[in-house]
Design a protein that fits this description.
The chain is mostly beta strands. The protein is 6% helix and 49% strand. Strands 1, 2, 3, 4, 5, 6, 7, 8, 9 and 10 form a ten-stranded antiparallel beta sheet that branches. Strands 11, 12, 13, 14, 15, 16, 17, 18, 19 and 20 form a ten-stranded antiparallel beta sheet that branches. Helix 1 crosses helix 2.
Amino acid sequence: MTNQIAGAWRLRSAERTAHGHTADWFGADPDGLLIFTEDLHFTEAITRTDLPAVASGDRLSTTPEEDRALARGTLGSYGTYTTSDDGSLAGQHVLGSTFPNWNDTRRGAGDIRVSVGDGRLRQALRLGPDDVVDLVWEYAGTAGSPASSNQVAAAWRLTFAKADTSGGTVQPFGPTPGGYLIFTDSGYFTDVLHRPGLPPLASGDPLVGSDEENARAVRDTLVVLGTYTVDADGVFMDEEVLRSSFPNWNGKRRDTSTLTETVEGDVMTEHLDDGEGVVITIRFSREQPPASPCTPRPA
């Protein structure tokens, strides 16, 4: 069968209708990237485009006002999905999210609906009783097995993260971090990283947190989406950050002088020198495809 939804999709609009009232979700001009891989993994990243840069330049040194804007301005989730006999979306298993209420939850037909046509993917996500978000995504490229020897194109699960700073070594997402990094064969990527075990938001709303909850979201989660290239041998060359939950990174280009992605078998190690005296080391394991993945959607 043909997988109707496999691919990379760029966000074009987002509206929330709650109790009869419709309003923009993530502002009038939201951005984001939704990736459904052919082997049934996904990442979804949504962000406002008017997020202010952090004045300190340090993701871990923010004011309560910055925490509120950043926590309410970005949303990321990742996991696996299934398709119906006709290749449409049947359900999702959200393994993790920057909104901890969604961690390890399953979505069925009553929670999410997806339709594809004319190069657009339309997604309706139920947030609660009489509360639905409608998102429109535009097809941006494939998300399958690379035709060339692209070493990084795959879904990768976060297994280790540390940051070496002038004040010592820290584990930004805890001793057992969670998250996905997906590189598509068409040149897109999304990171959704977090500290597992964060308490649910008391409001039950992904955009309404207390000062303490907002601070945790900024400190203990990270979302990055962008584009990347590889050389003739399929080795990672560079990336451009399109959007991030840390908006100081927006528009930043990184080549192998500051960022490397080294693949050895089913393990990928990332080294990032942020230029501010912090060196980050992150390790991922390759996520394996299910036994019978669907046929990819035609490009």
